[in-house]
Amino acid sequence: MSMPRVHLVGAGPGNPDLLTVKALRLIQQAEVVVHDRLVPQEILDLIPSSARRIFVGKATRNHSMAQEDINLLLVELAREGKRVVRLKGGDPFIFGRGSEEALTLAEHGIPFEIVPGVTAAAGCGAYAGIPLTHRGLATGVRFVTGHCREDNELVCDWRGMMDPDTTLVFYMALANLETIRRNLITAGVDPAMPAAAVSCGTTDAQRSVLATLGTLERALALQPLPAPCLIIVGRVVALAPELAWYGERELADA
Ligand SMILES: C[S@@+](CC[C@H](N)C(=O)[O-])C[C@H]1O[C@@H](n2cnc3c(N)ncnc32)[C@H](O)[C@@H]1O
């Protein structure tokens, strides 16, 4: 029996219209779909009813399946000869642990393909009217994790993030907002630097809060946003009031 390849597929940031054509085709042809918590119901509804669905979703501090077990599950399913789609929120290779899964497949000699998806930074930026780069405002962008293993203090190269020409995008950062604000300001970032939080970006539930680095935490305490939420810090955030085109309800301008 030939071994079908495992497809590690990015489902994008939540809006089903942002699935790639390849992702849609693979989902529709899958025999088994192993999926995360961030994959929304509208996308799960595209899975054929004949296919097996395995939820391995993760929430911070509440992992329903250990990553090592997910890695080995993919190996096991591939060895059963199934067409396996591993469906992950956003892009599999950006804070998605898709590379760990791919490494395990490689170690076990299982062929695989990576199908990129629209990562949250691109999706939230586009739908909140925040270009991640803009001539004269940002020459680069940096994706940073705002979460660390267990309950350890977030350790980052804060001084390396003080360049005002670089937009900073923090994933998984809601719980560590105070640490991020404090360390960025200590490293020299202007507290008046525009900052935004975008929750459930690209979906009907999208909400954003526009503030500054210094005031974002307070604004979010007044108007809490649900996860998933992305934090964007940089001069480009100032363009949001002009460029926001998606019909979300205006929440704040702190
Ligand atoms: C484990 S990471 C997965 C990132 C994913 N692989 C990607 O490329 O977007 C989960 C984090 O992504 C961000 N995120 C994912 N989808 C989002 C969305 N629709 N709106 C806002 N943030 C989102 C949040 O910061 C969330 O905590």
TrEMBL record:
Family: Belongs to the precorrin methyltransferase family.
Protein name as catalogued: uroporphyrinogen-III C-methyltransferase
GO biological process: cobalamin biosynthetic process; methylation; siroheme biosynthetic process
GO molecular function: uroporphyrin-III C-methyltransferase activity
Organism whose genome encodes this protein: Skermanella aerolata
Top-level enzyme category: transferase
E.C. number(s) listed in UniProt: 2.1.1.107
UniProt-listed Gene3D superfamilies: Cobalt-precorrin-4 Transmethylase, Domain 1, Methyltransferase, Cobalt-precorrin-4 Transmethylase, Domain 2
Entry keyword set: Cobalamin biosynthesis, Methyltransferase, Porphyrin biosynthesis, S-adenosyl-L-methionine, Transferase
Pfam families listed in its UniProt record: TP_methylase (PF00590)
Residue intervals of the Tetrapyrrole methylase domain: 5-216
